[in-house]
């Protein structure tokens, strides 16, 4: 073949290579566009077509990882991301997807390790920083989680994800006033489009702080926005319960029961409300419904307290002592047993019940005070 023949052959090869590269590029663009449109199966066809020709193509490997992650096939997605990183170390998209898969599988320590590798390449990525802070919160590393959330807030003062996460961190560690501050800030920033979860979180802080009236206002806002929201209904009912407005609490316990008739907790809460109102037959009916589903300590306790209120002290004591077998460190059980004995005029047995609790090596202010009163007489 002459010189011109060689040049022509080389040109044909170059043209073929160019066409192949262009086709792969178009398939890649199409695949990612389909992913954005959530047409996951079609996107996967594009990426698999690329991998048949170029098994190490980083765009297609990440694309397949993203499709499988969207389909919640996290282990398969992980294999694609790892393959990509073996051939293209430091690929940010593969690192991000891999970490997100481990997070979805609740493998938080692995997720943290990968996100920290990502931050070596992009240490100011707020999305990744908030994810790392979230993961540290999940593994209950308070110091590192708080540090990273605050770092994000220094970069972006009103970042909603960081404020929400920091609020949850404080809430998890029972720092309810600090949690309120975070969530109130979100409310001020997003007042026009407030997230119901923020409203119920604010309400829950007030429930924990026993500032029930303030809690009601947030739960009412959530209820108006979404009348069937479980957390709004539960919060309203529990705040009314805390304010001893039992009839109003019953309205909202009942609404939950309409959609979840087998909810043991709600059945016992309804029983508690009727018991507090001294409507004992209604209370017994709901406690029994709860027990028909499964053994429930609060339903048995409620029935015991009805017996106590009716003056059936021996029956109440028997039930309460039965509960001690499964919950021996519950100070309330000892207190109620002691009160039953006191009502029967059996002070030594009442003292014995309270000292049994103390023998466990535990201390409770209410128990200690009651014991002193029994030993030295009430003022």
Which features characterize this protein?
mainly alpha; single chain; elongated; 379 residues; Serine Threonine Protein Phosphatase 5, Tetratricopeptide repeat
Structure characterization notes:
Among the domains are: 25-123, Tetratricopeptide repeat domain (Serine Threonine Protein Phosphatase 5, Tetratricopeptide repeat), CATH 1.25.40; 262-307, no CATH class; 311-379, Tetratricopeptide repeat domain (Serine Threonine Protein Phosphatase 5, Tetratricopeptide repeat). 79% of the residues lie in helices and 0% in strands. The protein has 21 helices and no strands. The protein has helices at residues 3-36, 40-53, 58-70, 74-87, 92-104, 108-121, 126-138, 142-155, 160-172, 176-189, 196-209, 212-225, 230-242, 246-259, 264-276, 280-293, 297-309, 313-324, 331-343, 347-358, 365-376. The longest helix has 34 residues, at 3-36. The radius of gyration is 31 Å and the shape is elongated. The mean pLDDT is 92.
Largest sheet features:
none
How big is the Rg?
31 Å
What is the arithmetic mean of pLDDT?
92
Number of beta-strand segments:
0
In whole angstroms, the N-to-C terminal distance is 119 Å
Helicity, in percent?
over 70%
* Assigned CATH architecture of the domain at 25-123: Alpha Horseshoe
Strand content: under 5%
Give the overall shape, derived from the CA principal axes.
elongated
CATH superfamily caption of the domain at 25-123: Tetratricopeptide repeat domain
CATH class of the domain at 25-123: Mainly Alpha
Low-pLDDT parts are none
CATH T-level topology of the domain at 25-123: Serine Threonine Protein Phosphatase 5, Tetratricopeptide repeat
> From the helix content, strand content and strand pairing, which structural class follows?
mainly alpha
Count helical runs: 21
H-E string: HHHHHHHHHHHHHHHHHHHHH
